[in-house]
Each structure stands twice: as structure tokens, then as C-alpha cells.
Amino acid sequence: MFEFLDDFFARAMIAGIAVALIAGPFGCLLAWRRMAFMGETIAHSSLLGVVLGLMLGVVPQYAILFVAMVMAVVLYFLDKAEGLARDVSLSVIAHGALGVGLFLISLMPEVQVDLEAYLFGSLFAIDEVDLLIIFIGGGAIFTALLVYWRSLVAVTISPELAYAENVVRPEAEFIFTLMVAVLVAITMKITGLLLVSAILIIPAAAARFISKSPEQMAVFASLIGMTSVAAGLYISLLNDVAGNAAIIVVAIGLFVLCFAGSKLLFRNH
Amino acid sequence: MSDILIRAEQASLLLGNRQVLRAVDFEIIAGEIAIFIGPNGGGKTSLVKMLLGLYPATEGLIERKAGLKISYVPQKFEISPFLPLTVKRLLNFTQKYDDETLVEVLETTDCEHLLGAQVKQLSGGELQRVLLARAMISKPDILVLDEALQGVDQAGEVQLNNLISSYSKQHGTAILMVSHDLHLVMKSTDKVYCINGHICCHGKPEQVQHMDEFKDIFGSLADQFAVYTHKHDHNHELGHELGHEH
Q1: Which residue in the set B53, B70, B74 is minimally distant from A158, CB to CB?
Q2: pLDDT at residue B236 tops 50
Q3: B76 to chain A, minimum CA–CA distance in Å?
Q4: Is A243 within 8 Å of A12 (Cβ atoms)?
Q5: Subunit contact B79:A158, Cβ cutoff 8 A
Q6: Who among B53, B90, B138 is closest to A157 (CB)?
Q7: What is the ipTM of this complex?
Q8: Is pLDDT above 80 for A14?
Q9: Rounded to an integer, what distance in angstroms lies between the CA atom of residue A173 and that of residue B171?
Q10: Cβ pair B72:A161 closer than 8 A
Q11: What pTM, to 2 d.p., does this model score?
Q12: Which end of chain B is more exposed for a tag (fewer CB within 10 A), N or C?
């Protein structure tokens, strides 16, 4: 009954739409908190995951997921320790992980790593393992997001108020960090390292222009992301262009449309 | 400590390498109005944050009554420009209320017309009024106000100060206020704490003004303050505050 999954295009479409759905609210939370580059930082570490997977003989997707979560935990504690600005600790982690990954690869001359897939993703090579990770991992973080949403938004509005008035679930911020790691790990395959931030942040940025509340913005970001994936994939099918690039081009188009639309509406008021 | 809401015992605070507060003994009981005054950098805000648990005490003890309901108006409230947020949603920050309740509480601070406004478009004074309304809506045991009236015009300041003290009386809410403005020390303040790295002196307003530590910190300002409170020792009419010279 799942014959349609044999089709690479159907697999790409399902994976892309699922990821865009989840990326919407996460992208909003990251943008609100000025953590837009956190996704990219964790994505940098996935090369390390690929290498470790090869060294230990583990399926690379699982190794990437594991390393992403470890990096997120490191980031969480670096963030809590005073003294390092967030952009500095993000940069240290991103390039530290990338450097170690490249170092380990060069120690293993017999290993061929597809750097292009790492940088740009391999949307049309999504296999059953990827889909499984997307559905289980994505389902888990989406559920956790609904559970912790109120707490996460409260901390976003004002950490001082949220903590002083005791409305934060103590584990929420830590779990949020892990959720971002899982999201990045499942997004990597679709967009590649260079475009992870694009699918996280561009829909959220577009949604900002047309939203009046945090919840509205999260929903709009998901819708804009899913529309971008669906339209982008069809464009790539019809014109034989790179799928992830087409998705981002559509997303940017929607961004401009939302921006222009909000300006026009604003003028009419 | 049934009546004690928050208590500090020999609490010290180190931020980075800087000793911000040392050996603070403090307690606030239900329904009491306490005010922190002192120079910039003296540690008023840090003490508030330590009492609230935002900064863990480096030494000593901070105790809060179990299940204590706290409302807080922080000194700085900056919202991400990227976050769309209406006043209504801000008031529903911790708990959901129906529109009627929201309008009612906004009316007490004269900003019911702002219910649908975006928070980032409010003026400084409007934001403080909204934050004060937000703090009162949950009927807390204690209201912690760190320079809560900054940016509010003078007439509004008097009005909101009266509102705060009558709110305290009506609901038995304890108030902990930070101010650097001696004139703002209300006639209904129960205790004044002078803070400059530690609690230099404390007591009722009319006691504190005669203490040497107080005069050391505030110098000539202390004399003004003495005149001010003295005048009000004998005249507790609300209307007189409006005409008070600044």
C-alpha cells in the first residue's frame, strides 16, 4: 500500500513538507531569540557525524543525529556559562566541529565522503531510513513543541518575568536545544549544510510581516515553508533544476510578496 | 515563617569577580510595603533578582514561602522586534483571562485602549502601565516593582503610586519597590532600605531620614527628603502630593 514511496519524487515531497511543517514554529522561536544561526552551527557538526558513522560502522543518519544532539548539549552549557557571547560560542562550535570533521576525514584517505551532498543535501536520494527518522524524530519534536510551547514563548517574551514568576518548566530550555538538534539532523538531508538556515528562517521572516501574534506567525511560517517545498519541487521536476534551490527561490519569492503586501496594506490604513 | 514571604539571611552576591552585595539580612511579610533606595550601582536591582531567584546567592540563604505567587515588573523589558505580540497576549503571558477581566485591569492603569496594540509600538510610559496592569491581574502575594514607573509622566506617577498602595491594602498584597527617587517614597511605605553594596540602614521612612548612613549616601538630598516626609507626617491627604514641588 506504500508503493508510492518507491518514487523518489514522492519521497522528496513527503519529507520536504513534513520538515517544513515542523521548521515553521522552530524557525520563529530561533528568530525571536536571535539564534538564527544555531541551526547552521549544528549543521556544521554533521560532517563529524558522517565521519564517526564511517569509523564506527553506524548508519550515517543515526551518527549525524547523535553528533547533532551532543553539539546542542555543548552549546546549551556554553550558553549558560557566562563570558562568551552567543554568536562567539556558536562560531566556536560550528567551526570547531567542521575542523575536527575535516581533520578526521584526512586521516582516512581510503574514505570517500560526498561533500556535495553534505553541503547541498540530496533531496532526491531520500531513502526509507531518512523517512523513518523524519517521521519518528519529527513526530517526537512536534509533540514536544506543543507540550512546551507556552513555556518557550514565555521565556522568549521575557526570561526574567518567566523565571521570576515561575511559569517555566525547568527542563523546557534544555529539551528545546535537543529538539533543534533533531530538526537540523532531519533537515540536513533535504537542504544541505548551506541551506539549513534558509528553510528555518526565511519562512519565519516572511510570516513576520503578516502576523499579529506568536502563534499566528508560527502557523504562517509552516504554511509558507510547505508551499515553498511543494512549489519548488514541482518547478524542479518540470525544469530539471536543483530541488533545494528551487524551494529556497520560492521561499524568497513569498518573503518579498509578504513584505510588499504588508507595506501596501499598511499604507491603506 | 508563616507570614514571611521572602527572607534573606547573610546573603552575598558575586557577579563575575565583583562583590555586588554582602551579608544581606532581609525579610518581607504579607501585606508589607518595602522600598529599596540607593545610588546607581549600589545593588538594588541585583538584590531584587537575588530575592526572586534570578541570581543565586553566592553565600548565605534565600527563602521564599512555598507556593508564593510573585508578580514582577523588571527594570528593563525589551521585546524582540521580530516577535509580534499584542498587549492582550502579553497579559495572557502566564494564564488565560477573558477580555472583560483584561479590560478591567487595564482600566485601573488607564490603558484599556491599548488592549489590541502591538507591544513594540507602545511608548515607554504606556509599556510601564501595561506591565503594571499585567503584574496585578494574577492577584499575587507579592508585587515586585523595579523602577516600575520610569517613563510615566508626573501626574501618572502620583496616580499609579496611589493605585499601588490601595491595591496593596485591598488585596493584602506585599509590595517590594525599587526607586532612586526619594520623592517617590510613599507615605504608606512601611519600611525603607538604603542599599549600597549592603543594607546600610533600614526602618520606617521617618526613622531612616535621621540616620547617619542615610545622610552619608544622599547628602543634601537627604534634607529635602526629610522636609518632604516631615510635611506628610502631619498631612496625609492624597491631594497634597499632586502639588508637591520637585
Answers
A1: B74
A2: no
A3: 9
A4: yes
A5: yes
A6: B90
A7: 0.81
A8: yes
A9: 34
A10: yes
A11: 0.86
A12: C
Residue-range domain boundaries for chain A: 3-193
Single out the residue of B85, B92, B124 nearest to residue B106, CA to CA: B92
Residue B60: name the closest of B1, B6, B8, B19 by CA: B8
Whether B94 sits inside 8 A of A154 (CB atoms) is yes
Phi, psi of B61, deg, nearest 5: -135, 135
Note whether A216 contacts B84, CB cutoff 8 Å. yes
Q: What is the pLDDT of residue A267?
A: 61
* pLDDT of residue A29 exceeding 50: yes
User: What pLDDT does A81 receive?
Assistant: 74
User: Cα–Cα distance between B91 and B95 in angstroms, integer?
Assistant: 8
Q: Of all residues in chain B, what percent carry a pLDDT higher than 70?
A: 85
pLDDT at B223 over 70: no
For the segment(s) B1-69+176-234, the CATH number from 3.30.470.30, 3.40.50.300, 3.30.70.100, 1.10.10.10 is 3.40.50.300
Task: Considering only the beta carbons, identify the residue of A33, A164, A213 that sits closest to B70.
Answer: A164
3-class DSSP string for chain A? CCHHHHCHHHHHHHHHHHHHHHHHHHHHHHHHCCCCCHHHHHHHCHHHHHHHHHHHCCCHHHHHHHHHHHHHHHHHHHHHCCCCCHHHHHHHHHHHHHHHHHHHHHHCCCCCCCHHHHHHCCHHHCCHHHHHHHHHHHHHHHHHHHHHHHHHHHHHHCHHHHHHCCCCCCCHHHHHHHHHHHHHHHHHHHHCHHHHHHHHHHHHHHHHCCCCCHHHHHHHHHHHHHHHHHHHHHHHHHHCCCHHHHHHHHHHHHHHHHHHHHHHHHHHC
Measured in angstroms, the CA of B237 and the nearest CA of chain A are apart by: 35
pLDDT of residue B242: 43
In chain A, what residues touch B45 (CB-CB under 8 Å)? none
Interface of B with A in 67-106 (CB under 8 A): 70-72, 74, 77, 79-80, 82-86, 89-90, 93-94
For residue B238, what pLDDT is reported? 43
Residues of B in contact with A213 (CB under 8 A): 84-86, 89
All 3 cell numbers of residue B246?
A: 520637585
- On whether any CB of chain A is under 8 Å from the CB of B46, the answer is no
What class does CATH assign to A3-193?
mainly alpha
Distance CA A96, CA A78 (A): 14
Q: What is the pLDDT, as a whole number, of residue B231?
A: 46
Bridge partners (DSSP) listed for residue B142:
B70, B174
Residues of B in contact with A158 (CB under 8 A): 74, 77, 79
- Whether residues A160 and B144 touch (CB distance < 8 A) is answered with no
B80 and A165 within 8 Å at the Cβ level: the answer is no
Residues, chain B? 246
